[in-house]
Amino acid sequence: MELEVQNLTKIIKGTVILQNIKLSLTGGNIYGLRGKNGSGKTMLLRALCGLIKPSEGKIIIDGLCLGKDIDFPPSAGVLIENPSFLSGYTGFQNLKMLGLLKGHFSDEDIRSMIDAVGLDAYDKRKYRKYSLGMKQRLGIACALMGSPDLILLDEPLNALDEKGVELVKTLLIHLRDQGKIIVVACHDAEELEYLSDVIFKLENGAVYLER
Questions:
Q1: pTM above the 0.85 mark?
Q2: Which tens digit of pLDDT belongs to each residue from 69-79?
Q3: Which residues of 74-100 are buried (b: 16+ CB within 10 A; e: fewer)?
Q4: Among 28, 74, 76, 158, which one has the highest count of C-beta atoms within 10 angstroms of its own C-beta?
């Protein structure tokens, strides 16, 4: 997969949120996004997955213009802010329901993904009983289900313990080695340095190559 961001600008109520962003992303790389709160990281992720339309510029995915030729990337897994799950369902039940929307996944596929993020696929607890860390792990499992070609993660390491952080890092590196495009917004500079092949800094809506 190849993703091109061409002169992307987003203006909301007269305020420039993203400013003339140019990016060229290719498979087999983890791209880190660093920046303070309000710098535009989350808004950029929303744009990359088609949740918001640019005020100016284009996003091209494998030759197709997002918002014109396609409404959403054809193969994407997204974790932005707090994922929404049904509070009265177990983790497995939630992913099974979402799996019906994303495509056909066997029960074995779903259990394997739940296990991969360090949860128990047979846990009968309802989502409302989950800790913050468990909720975050389930959100990551949902984003990675089906091994999508484009993976967009907003602060995926939040609320995770040390073991959870290591599990997620291992998963992302494995997916990168399978040729995926992975974009991670993260406030932890040390973890971003470890994970990322390329790091971009967002400041006042503009993107700068940092490494």
A1: yes
A2: 999 999 999 99
A3: ebbbbbbeebebeeeebbbbbbbebbe
A4: 76
